[in-house]
Protein backbone atom coordinates (compact mmCIF):
# COMPACT_ATOMS: atom_id res chain seq x y z
CA UNK A 1 0.00 0.00 0.00
CA UNK A 2 1.54 3.31 -1.01
CA UNK A 3 1.25 6.51 0.98
CA UNK A 4 -1.72 7.75 -1.01
CA UNK A 5 -3.65 4.60 -0.23
CA UNK A 6 -2.73 4.90 3.44
CA UNK A 7 -3.97 8.48 3.45
CA UNK A 8 -7.18 7.37 1.76
CA UNK A 9 -7.66 4.58 4.28
CA UNK A 10 -7.08 7.02 7.13
CA UNK A 11 -9.58 9.47 5.67
CA UNK A 12 -12.12 6.69 5.28
CA UNK A 13 -11.57 5.64 8.89
CA UNK A 14 -12.08 9.24 9.96
CA UNK A 15 -15.43 9.31 8.17
CA UNK A 16 -16.68 5.92 9.35
CA UNK A 17 -15.25 5.89 12.87
CA UNK A 18 -14.31 9.40 13.91
CA UNK A 19 -13.76 8.43 17.55
CA UNK A 20 -11.05 5.92 16.57
CA UNK A 21 -9.33 8.36 14.25
CA UNK A 22 -8.87 10.99 16.97
CA UNK A 23 -5.94 11.01 19.35
CA UNK A 24 -6.76 9.01 22.47
CA UNK A 25 -7.98 11.06 25.41
CA UNK A 26 -5.17 10.74 27.97
CA UNK A 27 -7.38 11.48 30.98
CA UNK A 28 -10.47 9.53 29.99
CA UNK A 29 -9.94 6.59 32.39
CA UNK A 30 -9.26 8.96 35.28
CA UNK A 31 -12.27 11.14 34.46
CA UNK A 32 -14.65 8.20 34.07
CA UNK A 33 -13.39 6.59 37.29
CA UNK A 34 -14.12 9.85 39.11
CA UNK A 35 -17.84 9.25 38.46
CA UNK A 36 -17.55 6.29 40.87
CA UNK A 37 -15.85 8.24 43.69
CA UNK A 38 -19.06 9.57 45.29
CA UNK A 39 -19.81 6.05 46.56
CA UNK A 40 -16.44 4.26 46.25
CA UNK A 41 -14.18 7.07 47.50
CA UNK A 42 -11.71 9.45 45.85
CA UNK A 43 -9.36 7.39 43.65
CA UNK A 44 -11.35 4.31 44.71
CA UNK A 45 -10.36 4.40 48.39
CA UNK A 46 -13.68 3.97 50.23
CA UNK A 47 -14.37 5.49 53.65
CA UNK A 48 -17.54 3.45 54.18
CA UNK A 49 -19.02 -0.07 53.85
CA UNK A 50 -19.04 0.14 50.05
CA UNK A 51 -16.03 -1.63 48.48
CA UNK A 52 -12.78 0.14 47.66
CA UNK A 53 -11.74 -0.22 44.01
CA UNK A 54 -8.16 1.04 44.29
CA UNK A 55 -5.68 -1.72 43.48
CA UNK A 56 -8.36 -4.25 42.52
CA UNK A 57 -7.21 -6.25 39.47
CA UNK A 58 -8.69 -4.96 36.22
CA UNK A 59 -10.21 -8.32 35.26
CA UNK A 60 -12.05 -8.54 38.59
CA UNK A 61 -13.68 -5.14 38.12
CA UNK A 62 -14.63 -5.90 34.50
CA UNK A 63 -16.09 -9.29 35.48
CA UNK A 64 -18.13 -7.78 38.30
CA UNK A 65 -19.44 -4.95 36.16
CA UNK A 66 -20.48 -7.43 33.47
CA UNK A 67 -22.16 -9.65 36.06
CA UNK A 68 -24.02 -6.63 37.49
CA UNK A 69 -25.03 -5.55 33.98
CA UNK A 70 -26.31 -9.03 33.09
CA UNK A 71 -28.18 -9.47 36.37
CA UNK A 72 -25.94 -12.37 37.43
CA UNK A 73 -24.66 -10.70 40.57
CA UNK A 74 -27.16 -9.53 43.21
CA UNK A 75 -27.18 -5.79 43.83
CA UNK A 76 -29.26 -2.95 45.19
CA UNK A 77 -28.05 -0.32 42.70
CA UNK A 78 -25.01 -1.52 40.70
CA UNK A 79 -27.12 -3.59 38.28
CA UNK A 80 -28.75 -0.28 37.29
CA UNK A 81 -25.57 1.81 37.11
CA UNK A 82 -23.52 -0.85 35.27
CA UNK A 83 -25.92 -0.63 32.31
CA UNK A 84 -25.00 3.04 31.83
CA UNK A 85 -21.38 2.49 30.76
CA UNK A 86 -20.09 1.08 27.47
CA UNK A 87 -17.78 -1.99 27.56
CA UNK A 88 -14.90 0.29 26.47
CA UNK A 89 -15.62 2.67 29.34
CA UNK A 90 -15.72 -0.20 31.84
CA UNK A 91 -12.30 -1.37 30.56
CA UNK A 92 -10.83 2.11 31.01
CA UNK A 93 -12.29 2.57 34.49
CA UNK A 94 -11.13 -0.88 35.60
CA UNK A 95 -7.61 -0.31 34.29
CA UNK A 96 -7.40 3.04 36.06
CA UNK A 97 -8.57 1.68 39.44
CA UNK A 98 -6.25 -1.33 39.15
CA UNK A 99 -3.31 1.07 38.88
CA UNK A 100 -4.22 3.03 42.06
CA UNK A 101 -2.64 2.41 45.45
CA UNK A 102 -4.90 0.71 47.98
CA UNK B 1 -9.40 1.79 66.51
CA UNK B 2 -11.58 0.07 63.95
CA UNK B 3 -10.38 -1.01 60.54
CA UNK B 4 -12.43 1.67 58.85
CA UNK B 5 -11.08 4.40 61.08
CA UNK B 6 -7.50 3.30 60.46
CA UNK B 7 -8.08 3.16 56.71
CA UNK B 8 -9.64 6.58 56.82
CA UNK B 9 -6.62 8.10 58.56
CA UNK B 10 -4.30 6.35 56.15
CA UNK B 11 -6.29 7.71 53.21
CA UNK B 12 -6.30 11.24 54.60
CA UNK B 13 -2.56 11.02 55.29
CA UNK B 14 -1.86 9.85 51.75
CA UNK B 15 -4.01 12.62 50.30
CA UNK B 16 -2.21 15.13 52.51
CA UNK B 17 1.20 13.99 51.34
CA UNK B 18 0.13 14.20 47.70
CA UNK B 19 -1.25 17.69 48.25
CA UNK B 20 1.92 18.87 49.98
CA UNK B 21 4.11 17.44 47.23
CA UNK B 22 1.98 19.19 44.65
CA UNK B 23 2.25 22.49 46.48
CA UNK B 24 6.01 22.14 46.81
CA UNK B 25 6.37 21.37 43.13
CA UNK B 26 4.49 24.60 42.45
CA UNK B 27 6.77 26.63 44.73
CA UNK B 28 9.99 25.08 43.45
CA UNK B 29 9.43 26.31 39.93
CA UNK B 30 7.85 29.65 40.79
CA UNK B 31 10.57 31.91 39.30
CA UNK B 32 9.90 30.45 35.85
CA UNK B 33 6.20 31.31 36.20
CA UNK B 34 5.35 27.76 37.17
CA UNK B 35 1.73 28.30 38.12
CA UNK B 36 -0.46 27.13 35.27
CA UNK B 37 -3.06 29.68 36.29
CA UNK B 38 -5.36 31.04 38.92
CA UNK B 39 -8.83 29.71 39.59
CA UNK B 40 -11.28 31.35 41.97
CA UNK B 41 -14.19 29.20 43.14
CA UNK B 42 -17.22 31.00 44.53
CA UNK B 43 -19.32 28.78 46.79
CA UNK B 44 -18.18 25.80 48.86
CA UNK B 45 -21.12 23.43 48.43
CA UNK B 46 -21.03 20.03 46.71
CA UNK B 47 -20.09 21.67 43.39
CA UNK B 48 -17.57 24.32 44.40
CA UNK B 49 -15.70 22.36 47.08
CA UNK B 50 -15.31 19.36 44.76
CA UNK B 51 -14.06 21.59 41.95
CA UNK B 52 -11.50 23.22 44.26
CA UNK B 53 -10.14 19.84 45.37
CA UNK B 54 -10.07 18.18 41.95
CA UNK B 55 -8.46 21.14 40.18
CA UNK B 56 -5.64 21.03 42.75
CA UNK B 57 -5.40 17.23 42.58
CA UNK B 58 -5.55 16.85 38.81
CA UNK B 59 -3.18 19.73 38.11
CA UNK B 60 -0.63 18.26 40.53
CA UNK B 61 -0.79 21.53 42.44
CA UNK B 62 0.10 23.59 39.34
CA UNK B 63 -3.13 25.56 39.33
CA UNK B 64 -3.68 27.99 42.22
CA UNK B 65 -7.16 27.66 43.68
CA UNK B 66 -8.92 30.15 45.96
CA UNK B 67 -12.28 29.13 47.43
CA UNK B 68 -14.59 31.92 48.58
CA UNK B 69 -17.16 30.67 51.10
CA UNK B 70 -18.90 32.64 53.88
CA UNK B 71 -19.83 29.70 56.12
CA UNK B 72 -17.44 28.32 58.70
CA UNK B 73 -18.27 24.71 57.81
CA UNK B 74 -20.00 22.70 55.12
CA UNK B 75 -23.50 21.62 56.16
CA UNK B 76 -24.93 18.87 53.97
CA UNK B 77 -28.45 19.21 52.61
CA UNK B 78 -28.52 15.44 51.92
CA UNK B 79 -29.25 13.71 55.27
CA UNK B 80 -30.36 17.01 56.86
CA UNK B 81 -33.98 15.81 56.83
CA UNK B 82 -32.87 13.30 59.50
CA UNK B 83 -32.20 16.29 61.76
CA UNK B 84 -35.88 17.24 61.36
CA UNK B 85 -36.91 13.67 62.17
CA UNK B 86 -34.66 13.81 65.24
CA UNK B 87 -32.46 10.76 64.53
CA UNK B 88 -29.43 12.95 63.68
CA UNK B 89 -28.14 16.31 64.85
CA UNK B 90 -26.87 19.17 62.69
CA UNK B 91 -23.33 18.29 63.87
CA UNK B 92 -23.74 14.87 62.22
CA UNK B 93 -24.18 16.50 58.80
CA UNK B 94 -21.48 19.18 59.25
CA UNK B 95 -17.98 18.82 57.78
CA UNK B 96 -15.06 21.28 58.17
CA UNK B 97 -13.35 22.94 55.19
CA UNK B 98 -9.91 22.33 56.70
CA UNK B 99 -9.30 19.18 54.59
CA UNK B 100 -9.26 21.24 51.40
CA UNK B 101 -6.60 23.52 52.87
CA UNK B 102 -4.42 20.91 54.59
CA UNK B 103 -4.67 18.08 52.07
CA UNK B 104 -4.85 20.02 48.82
CA UNK B 105 -3.42 23.49 49.36
CA UNK B 106 -6.67 25.31 48.56
CA UNK B 107 -6.54 28.96 49.60
CA UNK B 108 -9.73 29.38 51.66
CA UNK B 109 -11.18 32.89 51.89
CA UNK B 110 -14.00 33.01 54.43
CA UNK B 111 -15.99 35.81 52.88
CA UNK B 112 -18.87 36.45 50.55
CA UNK B 113 -18.42 37.39 46.90
CA UNK B 114 -20.23 40.67 46.28
CA UNK B 115 -19.29 41.54 42.70
CA UNK B 116 -17.68 39.92 39.70
CA UNK B 117 -16.00 41.90 36.95
CA UNK B 118 -15.97 39.41 34.09
CA UNK B 119 -14.09 41.84 31.81
CA UNK B 120 -11.17 42.38 34.18
CA UNK B 121 -11.61 38.88 35.62
CA UNK B 122 -11.73 39.90 39.28
CA UNK B 123 -13.95 38.74 42.15
CA UNK B 124 -14.64 41.32 44.85
CA UNK B 125 -15.48 40.10 48.34
CA UNK B 126 -17.31 41.87 51.21
CA UNK B 127 -14.09 42.66 53.10
CA UNK B 128 -13.00 44.73 50.09
CA UNK B 129 -10.34 42.38 48.75
CA UNK B 130 -10.08 41.68 45.00
CA UNK B 131 -9.28 38.19 43.75
CA UNK B 132 -8.03 37.96 40.15
CA UNK B 133 -8.70 34.82 38.12
CA UNK B 134 -7.90 33.14 34.84
CA UNK B 135 -10.93 30.91 35.25
CA UNK B 136 -13.85 31.44 37.63
CA UNK B 137 -15.96 28.59 38.99
CA UNK B 138 -19.36 29.79 40.17
CA UNK B 139 -21.19 27.31 42.33
CA UNK B 140 -23.70 29.66 43.93
CA UNK B 141 -26.47 27.19 44.70
CA UNK B 142 -29.97 28.63 44.77
CA UNK B 143 -31.64 31.73 46.06
CA UNK B 144 -35.36 32.16 46.63
CA UNK B 145 -37.78 34.07 44.46
CA UNK B 146 -40.06 36.53 46.24
CA UNK B 147 -43.35 35.30 47.68
CA UNK B 148 -46.18 37.66 48.66
CA UNK B 149 -46.25 38.14 52.43
CA UNK B 150 -42.84 36.57 53.01
CA UNK B 151 -40.80 39.77 53.33
CA UNK B 152 -41.87 40.84 56.84
CA UNK B 153 -39.58 40.11 59.78
CA UNK B 154 -42.37 38.09 61.35
CA UNK B 155 -42.67 35.91 58.25
CA UNK B 156 -38.93 35.38 57.89
CA UNK B 157 -38.61 34.40 61.57
CA UNK B 158 -41.58 32.04 61.68
CA UNK B 159 -42.11 30.60 58.22
CA UNK B 160 -39.02 28.57 57.43
CA UNK B 161 -37.84 26.94 54.22
CA UNK B 162 -34.94 24.94 55.73
CA UNK B 163 -33.93 24.37 52.10
CA UNK B 164 -30.31 25.38 52.79
CA UNK B 165 -29.13 23.12 55.58
CA UNK B 166 -27.99 25.05 58.66
CA UNK B 167 -29.66 27.40 61.16
CA UNK B 168 -33.09 27.05 59.51
CA UNK B 169 -32.89 23.26 59.80
CA UNK B 170 -32.28 23.57 63.55
CA UNK B 171 -35.03 26.19 63.91
CA UNK B 172 -37.58 24.07 62.05
CA UNK B 173 -36.77 21.10 64.30
CA UNK B 174 -37.46 23.35 67.31
CA UNK B 175 -40.82 24.35 65.85
CA UNK B 176 -41.72 20.68 65.41
CA UNK B 177 -40.67 19.91 68.99
CA UNK B 178 -42.72 22.85 70.31
CA UNK B 179 -45.84 21.93 68.33
CA UNK B 180 -48.55 20.33 70.51
CA UNK B 181 -49.74 16.81 69.67
CA UNK B 182 -52.71 17.11 67.33
CA UNK B 183 -51.12 19.94 65.37
CA UNK B 184 -50.60 20.21 61.61
CA UNK B 185 -47.20 20.48 59.91
CA UNK B 186 -47.60 21.66 56.31
CA UNK B 187 -44.86 21.55 53.68
CA UNK B 188 -45.35 23.71 50.57
CA UNK B 189 -43.50 22.47 47.47
CA UNK B 190 -42.73 24.72 44.47
CA UNK B 191 -43.33 23.81 40.85
CA UNK B 192 -40.31 21.90 39.42
CA UNK B 193 -37.47 22.51 38.74
CA UNK B 194 -36.23 23.09 42.27
CA UNK B 195 -33.28 21.88 44.38
CA UNK B 196 -33.46 18.16 45.28
CA UNK B 197 -36.63 16.75 43.66
CA UNK B 198 -37.30 13.98 46.26
CA UNK B 199 -36.23 16.12 49.23
CA UNK B 200 -39.67 17.49 50.22
CA UNK B 201 -41.24 14.02 50.17
CA UNK B 202 -38.38 12.54 52.20
CA UNK B 203 -38.90 15.40 54.65
CA UNK B 204 -42.60 14.53 54.94
CA UNK B 205 -41.53 10.95 55.80
CA UNK B 206 -39.04 12.14 58.43
CA UNK B 207 -41.55 14.45 60.13
CA UNK B 208 -44.13 11.63 60.03
CA UNK B 209 -41.55 9.27 61.56
CA UNK B 210 -41.12 11.74 64.42
CA UNK B 211 -44.89 12.31 64.85
CA UNK B 212 -45.60 8.58 64.83
CA UNK B 213 -43.44 8.16 67.94
CA UNK B 214 -43.82 11.48 69.75
CA UNK B 215 -47.07 13.11 68.55
CA UNK B 216 -49.33 10.45 67.01
CA UNK B 217 -52.44 12.68 66.79
CA UNK B 218 -50.58 15.15 64.57
CA UNK B 219 -50.66 15.42 60.80
CA UNK B 220 -48.24 16.00 57.91
CA UNK B 221 -49.91 17.90 55.10
CA UNK B 222 -48.07 17.99 51.75
CA UNK B 223 -49.14 20.88 49.53
CA UNK B 224 -47.48 20.20 46.19
CA UNK B 225 -47.37 22.74 43.36
CA UNK B 226 -46.81 19.87 40.95
CA UNK B 227 -49.44 17.58 39.38
CA UNK B 228 -47.84 14.57 41.09
CA UNK B 229 -44.93 13.60 43.35
CA UNK B 230 -41.89 14.58 41.24
CA UNK B 231 -39.52 11.77 42.25
CA UNK B 232 -39.85 8.19 43.58
CA UNK B 233 -43.63 8.75 43.49
CA UNK B 234 -44.71 5.12 43.91
CA UNK B 235 -42.32 4.52 46.81
CA UNK B 236 -43.27 7.65 48.74
CA UNK B 237 -47.00 7.09 48.23
CA UNK B 238 -46.60 3.51 49.41
CA UNK B 239 -44.82 4.73 52.56
CA UNK B 240 -47.55 7.28 53.27
CA UNK B 241 -50.33 4.71 52.87
CA UNK B 242 -48.53 1.96 54.83
CA UNK B 243 -45.92 3.09 57.39
CA UNK B 244 -47.53 6.48 57.90
CA UNK B 245 -51.20 5.63 57.34
CA UNK B 246 -53.43 8.35 58.77
CA UNK B 247 -50.47 10.65 59.44
CA UNK B 248 -49.75 12.00 55.97
CA UNK B 249 -52.08 13.70 53.52
CA UNK B 250 -50.91 14.53 49.99
CA UNK B 251 -52.55 17.24 47.88
CA UNK B 252 -51.34 17.90 44.31
CA UNK B 253 -51.71 21.01 42.10
CA UNK B 254 -51.36 23.40 45.05
CA UNK B 255 -49.44 26.28 43.51
CA UNK B 256 -48.83 28.72 46.37
CA UNK B 257 -49.19 32.45 45.70
CA UNK B 258 -48.49 33.89 49.15
CA UNK B 259 -48.54 33.58 52.91
CA UNK B 260 -50.10 35.35 55.87
CA UNK B 261 -47.47 35.16 58.58
CA UNK B 262 -49.78 36.19 61.43
CA UNK B 263 -52.15 33.29 60.92
CA UNK B 264 -49.65 30.87 59.30
CA UNK B 265 -51.92 30.57 56.30
CA UNK B 266 -50.95 29.76 52.70
CA UNK B 267 -52.86 31.06 49.71
CA UNK B 268 -53.04 29.14 46.43
CA UNK B 269 -53.83 29.82 42.77
CA UNK B 270 -56.90 27.64 42.68
CA UNK B 271 -57.29 25.83 46.03
CA UNK B 272 -58.66 27.04 49.37
CA UNK B 273 -56.36 28.67 51.95
CA UNK B 274 -54.62 26.30 54.35
CA UNK B 275 -53.62 27.12 57.94
CA UNK B 276 -50.91 25.14 59.72
CA UNK B 277 -49.29 25.04 63.16
CA UNK B 278 -45.85 24.62 61.61
CA UNK B 279 -45.62 26.06 58.11
CA UNK B 280 -42.60 24.92 56.08
CA UNK B 281 -42.71 26.96 52.89
CA UNK B 282 -40.17 26.11 50.17
CA UNK B 283 -40.29 29.02 47.71
CA UNK B 284 -39.57 28.81 43.98
CA UNK B 285 -35.85 29.13 43.26
CA UNK B 286 -33.32 30.52 40.83
CA UNK B 287 -29.53 30.42 40.53
CA UNK B 288 -27.84 32.16 43.48
CA UNK B 289 -27.80 35.98 43.38
CA UNK B 290 -24.09 36.27 42.51
CA UNK B 291 -24.83 34.46 39.22
CA UNK B 292 -27.25 37.23 38.32
CA UNK B 293 -24.63 39.83 39.20
CA UNK B 294 -22.09 38.03 37.00
CA UNK B 295 -24.50 38.02 34.07
CA UNK B 296 -24.58 34.25 33.60
CA UNK B 297 -28.32 33.71 34.15
CA UNK B 298 -29.54 33.08 30.60
CA UNK B 299 -32.50 30.69 30.86
CA UNK B 300 -35.96 31.85 31.91
CA UNK B 301 -34.37 34.59 34.03
CA UNK B 302 -33.63 31.81 36.56
CA UNK B 303 -30.86 29.40 35.52
CA UNK B 304 -27.43 29.43 33.86
CA UNK B 305 -26.92 27.70 30.53
CA UNK B 306 -23.53 26.03 30.17
CA UNK B 307 -21.44 24.19 27.58
CA UNK B 308 -21.65 20.68 29.03
CA UNK B 309 -18.11 19.72 27.96
CA UNK B 310 -16.60 22.40 30.22
CA UNK B 311 -19.53 23.87 32.22
CA UNK B 312 -18.43 27.25 30.91
CA UNK B 313 -21.27 29.77 30.67
CA UNK B 314 -22.68 30.02 27.15
CA UNK B 315 -22.61 33.78 27.54
CA UNK B 316 -19.64 34.84 29.68
CA UNK B 317 -16.16 33.54 28.83
CA UNK B 318 -13.92 32.03 31.53
CA UNK B 319 -16.85 31.59 33.95
CA UNK B 320 -17.85 27.98 34.71
CA UNK B 321 -21.15 27.37 36.51
CA UNK B 322 -21.92 24.22 38.52
CA UNK B 323 -24.65 22.53 40.49
CA UNK B 324 -28.21 23.57 41.20
CA UNK B 325 -27.68 26.93 39.46
CA UNK B 326 -27.45 25.52 35.93
CA UNK B 327 -30.11 24.99 33.31
CA UNK B 328 -30.16 21.21 33.60
CA UNK B 329 -29.89 18.67 30.81
CA UNK B 330 -32.97 16.46 30.22
CA UNK B 331 -33.71 14.19 33.23
CA UNK B 332 -30.75 15.63 35.16
CA UNK B 333 -31.75 16.37 38.77
CA UNK B 334 -30.57 19.34 40.81
CA UNK B 335 -28.79 17.25 43.46
CA UNK B 336 -25.65 17.39 45.56
CA UNK B 337 -24.40 14.19 43.94
CA UNK B 338 -24.88 15.72 40.51
CA UNK B 339 -23.15 18.97 41.54
CA UNK B 340 -20.12 16.90 42.62
CA UNK B 341 -20.19 15.21 39.19
CA UNK B 342 -20.48 18.54 37.34
CA UNK B 343 -17.45 19.71 39.31
CA UNK B 344 -15.25 16.85 38.11
CA UNK B 345 -16.13 17.42 34.43
CA UNK B 346 -15.41 21.13 34.89
CA UNK B 347 -12.19 20.48 36.87
CA UNK B 348 -10.85 18.15 34.16
CA UNK B 349 -11.71 20.70 31.47
CA UNK B 350 -10.21 23.66 33.35
CA UNK B 351 -6.95 21.81 34.08
CA UNK B 352 -6.76 20.74 30.42
CA UNK B 353 -7.35 24.29 29.18
CA UNK B 354 -4.81 25.83 31.57
CA UNK B 355 -2.15 23.23 30.78
CA UNK B 356 -2.69 23.19 27.01
CA UNK B 357 -4.26 19.73 26.71
CA UNK B 358 -7.38 18.85 24.71
CA UNK B 359 -10.65 18.93 26.64
CA UNK B 360 -12.27 15.51 26.97
CA UNK B 361 -15.06 15.14 24.41
CA UNK B 362 -16.90 12.24 26.04
CA UNK B 363 -17.76 13.05 29.67
CA UNK B 364 -20.16 10.99 31.77
CA UNK B 365 -22.05 11.96 34.92
CA UNK B 366 -24.12 9.83 37.26
CA UNK B 367 -26.72 10.46 39.90
CA UNK B 368 -27.40 8.40 42.99
CA UNK B 369 -29.95 9.77 45.40
CA UNK B 370 -30.96 8.02 48.61
CA UNK B 371 -34.13 8.98 50.50
CA UNK B 372 -34.81 7.98 54.10
CA UNK B 373 -38.31 6.61 54.64
CA UNK B 374 -37.62 5.94 58.35
CA UNK B 375 -34.47 6.65 60.39
CA UNK B 376 -32.75 3.68 58.70
CA UNK B 377 -34.89 2.32 55.87
CA UNK B 378 -33.96 3.82 52.54
CA UNK B 379 -34.85 3.93 48.84
CA UNK B 380 -32.76 5.18 45.91
CA UNK B 381 -33.07 6.56 42.43
CA UNK B 382 -30.07 6.33 40.11
CA UNK B 383 -29.17 7.36 36.56
CA UNK B 384 -26.20 7.55 34.19
CA UNK B 385 -25.88 10.43 31.72
CA UNK B 386 -23.58 10.25 28.67
CA UNK B 387 -22.63 13.33 26.66
CA UNK B 388 -24.31 13.34 23.25
CA UNK B 389 -22.08 15.07 20.72
CA UNK B 390 -24.88 15.82 18.27
CA UNK B 391 -27.31 17.26 20.80
CA UNK B 392 -24.42 18.80 22.81
CA UNK B 393 -26.00 17.81 26.11
CA UNK B 394 -26.06 14.94 28.57
CA UNK B 395 -28.69 12.29 27.93
CA UNK B 396 -29.77 9.64 30.45
CA UNK B 397 -28.81 6.19 29.13
CA UNK B 398 -32.02 4.30 28.29
CA UNK B 399 -32.38 1.10 30.32
CA UNK B 400 -29.79 2.19 32.88
CA UNK B 401 -30.57 3.55 36.33
CA UNK B 402 -33.79 3.00 38.21
CA UNK B 403 -35.45 2.79 41.59
CA UNK B 404 -35.41 0.56 44.65
CA UNK B 405 -38.23 -1.99 44.74
CA UNK B 406 -38.93 -0.99 48.37
CA UNK B 407 -37.21 0.53 51.41
CA UNK B 408 -34.63 -1.57 53.24
CA UNK B 409 -32.11 -1.19 56.07
CA UNK B 410 -29.37 -2.47 53.69
CA UNK B 411 -29.88 0.59 51.51
CA UNK B 412 -29.80 2.61 54.72
CA UNK B 413 -26.28 1.33 55.37
CA UNK B 414 -25.31 2.19 51.80
CA UNK B 415 -26.82 5.66 52.18
CA UNK B 416 -24.70 6.40 55.24
CA UNK B 417 -21.66 4.99 53.42
CA UNK B 418 -22.48 7.21 50.44
CA UNK B 419 -22.51 10.23 52.78
CA UNK B 420 -19.10 9.38 54.24
CA UNK B 421 -17.61 8.91 50.80
CA UNK B 422 -19.12 11.93 49.07
CA UNK B 423 -18.24 14.20 52.01
CA UNK B 424 -14.65 12.97 51.83
CA UNK B 425 -14.65 13.15 48.01
CA UNK B 426 -15.88 16.74 48.20
CA UNK B 427 -13.97 18.04 51.22
CA UNK B 428 -11.08 15.80 52.34
What does this structure look like?
The complex is a heterodimer of chains A (102) and B (428). With 102 residues, chain A is mostly helical. Helices cover 55% and strands 0% of the residues of chain A. The radius of gyration of chain A is 17 Å and the shape is globular. Chain B is an alpha/beta fold. Chain B is built from eleven helices and 25 strands. Chain B has helices at residues 3-28, 46-58, 81-85, 98-104, 153-158, 167-178, 199-214, 233-241, 289-294, 336-354, 409-427; strands at residues 37-42, 63-68, 73-75, 94-96, 107-109, 113-117, 122-125, 130-132, 135-138, 142-144, 184-189, 219-224, 248-251, 256-260, 265-268, 274-275, 278-281, 285-287, 306-307, 312-313, 319-321, 364-372, 378-388, 393-396, 402-403. In chain B, strand 19 and strand 20 form a beta hairpin. In chain B, helix 1 crosses helix 4, helix 2 runs parallel beside helix 10 (336-354) and helix 2 (46-58) packs across helix 11 (409-427). Chain B is globular and about 65 Å long. Residues 1-32 of chain B have low confidence and may be disordered. The chains are: A mainly alpha (102), B alpha/beta (428). At the A-B interface, helix 3 and helix 4 of A face helix 1, helix 2, helix 10, strand 22 and strand 23 of B.
TL;DR of this structure?
The complex is a heterodimer of chains A (102) and B (428). Chain A is mainly α.
Amino acid sequence: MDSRHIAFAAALAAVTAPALAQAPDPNLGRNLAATCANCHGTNGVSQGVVASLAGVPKADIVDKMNAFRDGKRPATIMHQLAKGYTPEQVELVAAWFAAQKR
Amino acid sequence: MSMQRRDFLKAVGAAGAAGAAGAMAGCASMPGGASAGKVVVVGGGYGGATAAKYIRMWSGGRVDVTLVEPNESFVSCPLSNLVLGGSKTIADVTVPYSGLVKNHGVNLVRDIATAIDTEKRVVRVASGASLPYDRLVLSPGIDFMSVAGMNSVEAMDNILHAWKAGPQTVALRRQLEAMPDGGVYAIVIPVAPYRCPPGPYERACQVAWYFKRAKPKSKVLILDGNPDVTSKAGLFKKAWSEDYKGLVEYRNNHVATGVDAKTKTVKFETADDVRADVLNFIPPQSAGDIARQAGVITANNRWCEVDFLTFESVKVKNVHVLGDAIQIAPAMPKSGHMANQHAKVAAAAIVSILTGQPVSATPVVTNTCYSFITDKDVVHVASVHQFDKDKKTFLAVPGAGGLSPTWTPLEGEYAFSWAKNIWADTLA
